[in-house]
Here is the input.
Amino acid sequence: MIEVRDAVKRFDGFAALNGVTLTVPRGAVYGLVGPNGAGKSTLLRCLNGVYKTESGTMTIDGESVWENPALKARVNSIPDDWYYFLQSSTQDMMRLYRGIYPKFSVERYKKLEAAFPIDPKKPIRHLSKGMQKQAAFWLTMSCMPEYLMLDEPVDGLDPVMRRQVWSLVLDDVAERGTTVLVSSHNLRELEDVCDQVGILDHGRVLLERSLAQLQDNMVKLQVVFPDGMTEVPPEIPALHASKLGRIHTLILRMNAQNATELLAQYNPLLVDAVPLTLEEIFIYELGGADYAVKDIVL
Amino acid sequence: MQSKTSSFKGLFSPALFRNDLSRFWPLWALYFAAWLLAMPAVQLLELFGRNRQWMDLATLRTNALDEVTGMASSGALVMSVVFGCLFAMALFSYLTNARAVGFAHALPARREGLFLTHYISGAAVFLSVHAVMALLTMAVWATAGVREMWLIGVWFLSATGQMLLFYGFAVFCAMFAGQMLAIPVFYGVLNVLVYGLTYLFQSLCQLLFYGWSNSDIPMPVVWLTPVYKLSKIFQNPWIYDKLGNWSGTDWGELYSSLGAVGIYALAGVALTAAALLVYKLRRSEATGDTVAIGWARPIFRYGVGVCAALSFGQLLYTILRDAVGGYGGGAASVPGVAVCMIALGLVGYFAAEMLLQKSFRVLKRSWKGGAVLAAVLVLVCAGFSVDLLGIEKYVPEADDIQSLDFDIYGVNYINGNITDPETIGRFLALHQALVEERPENDYNSENSGYTGLRLDYTLKNGKKLSRDYGFTYESGEVREDGSVLSQMAALMSDPVVRRADLSAQFLNDVDRLTAAEITLYLAQPGGRGQTLNFDADTARTLLDALEKDVDAGHLGADALDQDAWYANTYSNSLTFYYRVKPDPAHPRRDDSASFDLQFSKHDTFLLAALEHAGVDTGLLTTNQQMNDSDGSTVMAKDAYAYTQQEGRIPDEDGSVENEAPADASVGIIGGADGPTEILVTSQPAPADTKEP
Here is the structure.
């Protein structure tokens, strides 16, 4: 289990992490979402032992991450800008990984060769961005990680390869109980793979819940009010309201049943509850945190 | 199947080590090739090349020893300075790349493990290279019959010790650098920083303090500038026989040099340990910053400002002074120096700030620091202006002085060392008078003479104090009672001072006099000269007479009065030939030497002795007469000039055929298969017997 409590990390006075608290249960796939500059990559680097937090705690299975080689041997990450030695091939990097990560599986490395159409002897710098990402997955998955931290992991991969790597990751989760912490802006994709989501903004976690809880906690209603009611009554706590013809679309922070009961007092002609996508939850939650899409007239 | 080779073993990762070796192999190969060429290849060529055909083993061995000694000193120094930095730049370059540092620090290793593995990679390379080179060179020597294998061990220790220092130092610098280019810059600057700052401070003192003299660089400064100190080791560790071949070892010099290398090697290890501590403090996110360690940034900022003020500030002042006013000598303007130093100091300060902030817009954020620097520089200059520490006026107490080295230069130059309290007291009185009267060096005046006095006091507490005064004067001032010039003139003919001068110039070196000679330029009609030679006994008589003149205060009587000096001093110099005292550690192939004495009409004892030796002193020519003589003396003058330049003795007609008494001849009798007999003579063959 990954546990972060009140973690603070500042860069020249700017708090990139400003008291982050989150919990990633063992064997979960945790999606970390948030606007640009929210602190997602910083949080992942702190969890990898690259950055040191100024206060708060960061533990994996109860052990502090910082300067803990035994723990870090069980943790692998693929950052957004994966690093390789300039003149190295995938095979060269494999030798390094094999020597450094004690659980590196040469058997798995050979098996995965079929999944990734890469010449292992070709210098990595000569590979395309997407193929470099594939090489990163190939090597990382061969390390048999117990904890996997991914920052924009499928960025640059084609749709087939995206499905391929997610399949590999989810197989590992299912078979070996790997815990995955993934940061991405591709919310549609996260929706398919994540059990749990945390929304990060300004260095703090706004909320973290399972996807089902999130969807249960917020509802989108399409409502048609009786004649004479052209506007949404002000006492309805709508996070967002829009209107198309006579149909009002309302986003409410409550479950569908409570929302339907709330609207029942206005005798609507039509009430239809629609589940929200992760993207909509992200947008409306952050809209409440002053990060709404602004109507800008150019 | 899981990997058998596993992670970090304690503080060392074999995988990362192998990776370092394979990644940077071109650099390791370059280092290997450089030493291969400098050591075994050179020895191979030296001992088995063309030289072997015409040099004997003793000569070849001497050359081999000399070359390996050179490699242990300057060779190892150059290699260490250059490759120490390159090794550190290669192995710790990841600290200057954000992606690389993210990768490295996410690996399952402590910072110590990463640091030590990379450090050991570099150390293993240079140790291996040194060991291989030592073995190869030993093989070459063994084949050639050179037996002094221990010298290769000395080379190994020296090269390894120096590499430990400079590699450790470069690693230390790398820990502070967030950008690749900053590593060699920090390394280069810090290597000479202490020496440079000392030099700049002394220059400023010389500019602003009347009489300030740049003394010898203090020993701590020399030690804190390893490039300088190490360039002086293994300078002369060998004893040669009279044929110039190696005959023994000056073990004191050798051990002292090795001791210095050992101390620096320990310093290198200490710097490495310090680098490790700094690495643990270093934040990964500092990658890309010019200075990666927070607490070092103010040091960098103000350090650059101070260095810019001291160096470019002084330079700007001297340029402006010469360009605007035309330098006429005299003391520098303290406000002028202050303005230049503050201006350039602020330029340096804000330039450093721009590098730190990676922005040109730094004025708003950092003007307060600039103001602090400017204020400090104003205070320093004000301190100089009012001589806060009393440096200009300081004259040591006689009781505190152990000895005094003096140099007085004017029409002629004397120098020496004195310990006589009374004479030191007279110098102190002169020093005090100079401090009070402050005569200056005025290039624009019409004064006729220039003189100078340098005083180097050795104090009883072991410290040194140096002062240097130079100024122009009128000849008449020499005759004013109590004036600075009259005091100087009196000292220049003082028996103790003159004896100290003669001792410094040749008496201290004399083992035994062998001959003396004097040339009379106008001895014969038509301006032809004549050289008179004297045997050792006569030379001793002449020297005794000279010492009587010294004791009577005759020698140097007109030293500062130019007109009198020209009128009374002879252009005929009396030359003493002598053997120098033997130095068992460094026997000389040629132990003969000579000393030319200028004397004057005042030196009555010497003139009498010359008369007694058969010299017609009426034929001596004063400098005034020499200048006033007509064209008939040209040949004699030419011969004189030739004598001065070449140290040869002209014949009666002014031509030169014979060499000086130390001349010798070597004859070799033998066939094409090598000499069978070598003959050495101490006298050259007569001219008519020489082969055409």
Notes: The first helix of chain A runs from residue 40 to 47.
